[in-house]
């Protein structure tokens, strides 16, 4: 997994699958939310995301009042987020 950041955007490539991935994503996003109230997250090709990441994103939105705009490249991940009723919470869109 690779993470690149710019301004209030995080771009994640590769599969998200480990606790180390969660820690790296959390660290990158925490740096952004210190200055911005909106985070744009692009998950290019991961087929899923871990429950710890879902919990962290939920905390950002519901407790910290951070707006997340998420773009996903994988149809499977999009369907997972739809099944969990998280598409509106995370403002999920398909990458075109």
Descriptive tags:
96 residues; alpha/beta; 5-stranded mixed β-sheet; 3 helices; 5 strands; 38% helix
Structural write-up:
With 96 residues, this protein is α/β, with parallel strands linked by helices. It has helices at residues 19-33, 51-62, 75-83; strands at residues 2-6, 9-13, 38-43, 67-72, 92-94. It has a five-stranded mixed β-sheet, covered by helices on one side. The radius of gyration is 12 Å and the shape is globular.
Element layout with pairings:
Elements: E1 2-6, E2 9-13, H1 19-33, E3 38-43, H2 51-62, E4 67-72, H3 75-83, E5 92-94
Parallel strand pairs: 2-3, 3-4, 4-5
Antiparallel strand pairs: 1-2
**Widest sheet: strand order?**
1-2-3-4-5
CA-CA gap between termini = 21 Å
Q: Roughly what fraction of the amino acids lie in strands?
A: 25-35%
For the residues shown, what is the average pLDDT?
95
Helix and strand element order: EEHEHEHE
Query: How many E-type strands?
Result: 5
Q: Tally the helices: what do you get?
A: 3
Radius of gyration: 12 Å
Task: Quickly give the structural class.
Answer: alpha/beta
Assembly context of the chains: single chain
Which outline best applies?
A: globular
Q: What about the largest sheet? A: 5 strands, mixed
Low-confidence parts: none
**Helix share bin:** 25-40%
């Amino acid at each position: 997994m690779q993470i690149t950041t710019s301004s209030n955007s995080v771009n994640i490539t590769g599969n998200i699958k480990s606790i180390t991935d969660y820690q790296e994503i959390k660290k990158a996003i925490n740096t952004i939310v210190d200055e911005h109230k909106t985070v744009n997250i692009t998950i290019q090709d991961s087929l899923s995301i871990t429950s710890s990441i879902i919990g962290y994103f939920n905390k950002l939105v519901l407790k910290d009042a951070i707006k997340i705009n998420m773009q996903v490249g994988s149809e499977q991940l999009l369907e997972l987020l739809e099944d969990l009723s998280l598409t509106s919470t995370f403002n999920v869109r398909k990458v075109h």
